[in-house]
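Our working data are protein records whose layout never changes between entries. Getting from the letters to the tokens is the skill we practise here. To make this concrete, we reproduce a full record directly below:
***
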Amino acid sequence: MPYNLKPLSLLIIMSLTLLKPTNAQVTTSKIHYLTDTTLNFDGLISQFKNKVIYVDAWATWCVPCRQELQRKKDVQAFANFAAKNDIVILYICCDYNGSKWKQYIKANNLAGYHFLINKAVHDDFHTTLSQVQMRSKVMKRSFYMPRHIIIDKNGVIADSNATQQGNPKVYATLKKLLAKAG
């Protein structure tokens, strides 16, 4: 008895089109890990010569950091804006143990460059980029997270206390820098 293979071939073609990558899978390829553990903050920034850089310092244990990075609409819109304007998004994870780091990045599809903090960058954050304030009647230096820093095309810090992704102020600051550089 002859079989009609047309319905079967249609079913196979339809199932293959359903396996096509989704947008989330496509943007995952835009996740880049920086693995040079000898870099200090300046060395890390120098990896992106002649680029405006938006630095997002965060940690998996930091609740406000996670809340910001889980605002998918804002994070995706910012990633699109950055890609369109040739802006580097550099995420620096301040975890001391990298076990949860990559899982979180993949789960939240954080497109950009990722660096797990090392001692040199930690020291830079807690000296050069820290804030001095009175705590327990003693002046202390602290590096608070989440922390956002904007670096201009010359590698100079343009804003050491920028706002989070999606905030109109950060777009305005970046547009101003791009116009100045262009």
